[in-house]
Amino acid sequence: MEPNNENRVIDITAMEVHKVVSPPHRSTFQKLKNRLKETFFPDDPLRQFKGQPLKQKLVLGAQYVFPILEWGPNYSFKLFKSDIVSGLTIASLAIPQGISYAKLANLPPIVGLYSSFVPPLVYAVLGSSRDLAVGPVSIASLVLGSMLREVVSPTKDPILFLQLAFSSTFFAGLFQASLGFLRLGFIIDFLSKATLIGFMAGAAVIVSLQQLKSLLGITNFTKQMAIVPVLSSVFHRTNEWSWQTILMAFCFLGFLLLTRHISMRKPKLFWISAGAPLLSVIISTLLVFAMKGQKHGISIIGKLQEGLNPPSWNMLHFSGSYLGLVIKTGIITGILSLTEGIAVGRTFAALKNYQVDGNKEMIAIGVMNIVGSSTSCYVTTGAFSRSAVNHNAGSKTAVSNIVMAVTVMVTLLFLMPLFQYTPNVVLGAIIVTAVVGLIDVPAAYQIWKIDKFDFLVLLCAFFGVIFISVQNGLAIAIGISILKVLLQITRPKTVMLGNIPGTGIYRNLDHYKEAMSVPGFLILSIEAPINFANATYLKERISRWIEDYDAEGGKNKKQSGLRFVVLDLSAVTAIDTSGVSLFKDLSMAMEKKGFEFVLVNPIGEVLEKLQRADETKDMMRPDCLFLTVEEAVASLSSTIKYQIPDNV
């Protein structure tokens, strides 16, 4: 509190006091209905059906479930020309990335191509984004592979590992679709921006370090994902380094990073970075084939199976000792891929000024993973790199995904023998180039400037991933984020208000230095809902405010004694029974000390619950309930004279 200086007497101008009106009566059923609607249906998806005839409702319902029926009837050849260009462009990126990401997940390379064929077809029917390009992504591949490899070796038991990967994909899709059907998409909001940026950067570092096996030609490499064992494995295996592999890695990695830099500087040249991975695969394959590089220490993919996706529903595990593992892996990879896919879809929707329905996206991504798990595919979603290329190439509708899928189908049927001599070093270079973009230094710096606690969350996610493990780093970051929310709930902000001279405005005394406290009044504002988690803290904090006021009055004898405790409840949006008990206790405590306890602007639900609890009508008397702080001060001070600072 600021000390009072010289005193002078002023007249308190009388003003009209507005009555605080009780909210309109609503039944318990109406309240519950409104709460459920705002929780699960904030977008009100049924509003388009209101007032429509039955036939139109059926049409709208079909279009809602299958968005392709909405834009399909109006599809034209002009749109197809744009979509075929963008589809072929992303196919040139999806083929080498699919092979590379499958290896990142410790799966056969062919599974990456399978995952770029069936899921895009499903998404084209169910998805609502025009720009999302579907396929395997680096982070989900890394998490899937690392979590399963902790229990099952992909080299010693490849069939079981593949079965667990498909089973995890099924549970990922089931979890994703369930979130959409049950309208529980807000669950993924626990992955804050800071958590995602730190996690993505840490995962990018780990993914890049893992590729040192391919880039250096090491054959015996650690299975652990943390940075220390990875670097230890690299420098303890210098005898396995291959200069031919290192030379090829340097050339192609430099080429890919250069094309990425050019496309970033000049977005119109997006096709350069989009076509660079496929061009690298073609050139490196020809070089290895011509020079018989496999005989000189250069590791190659080997023969790949021809043909379309074989069914895999008989490989899914729904019981046994691995059930817990595949459910946990499915949920974690499902959340990560869902978060990435929806974020990417909304980003490009905003650029083109159209809406993406988050819950429909969850259902679409979930269904395509469920279908994918039965057709030899692993976890897929909308990847930022491919979607950016799709957007820049002029994609108009989801037909670009169909074009990409058809291109991959042709590759699976007729072109697989051409990839036999593709060197693993190039696949490693493609992965490194793709994940470099996940390290967003400007965004991290922006978080540092805005919120230091969020930056701490970012660092925990980053260092947790690179020093402990991918899933534990993510868990630590989410835990700290939840702790931050709990702290905000259990320790709500309370501030002392003062009057800005010459106005009826009352603001935080610490914020507005010109604001002055009103003698005889302790005016406090609570800026959070009041519930069982913070009621005890608020009681103690308000008691300390009163003690501080009294102590300040003892030091400054010219300051008027405390007469009124005013609580501004404008920012209190909700209250429970513990909160109601808090006000009852405060009211009795103030009465014993000879203070008047006054409430200002309790809103809706808060006012209604306080009135129901005030059986004796002592706490909610008209002279203890005001609409604004200005009216409360004017009304309460109209019967007495005040000694107030001369500079008010």
Automatic annotation (TrEMBL):
Pfam families: STAS, Sulfate_transp. PROSITE patterns: SLC26A, STAS. It is a multi-pass membrane protein. GO terms for cellular component: plasma membrane. The keyword Membrane applies. Residues 511-636 form the STAS domain. It is found in: Membrane. GO terms for molecular function: secondary active sulfate transmembrane transporter activity; transmembrane transporter activity. The chain crosses the membrane at residues 107-125, 160-182, 194-212, 241-258, 270-291, 322-344, 398-419, 425-448, 455-483. Keywords: Membrane, Transmembrane, Transmembrane helix, Transport. One of its GO terms (biological process) is transmembrane transport. PANTHER family: SULFATE TRANSPORTER. NCBIfam families: sulP. This is Probable sulfate transporter 3.3 isoform X1.
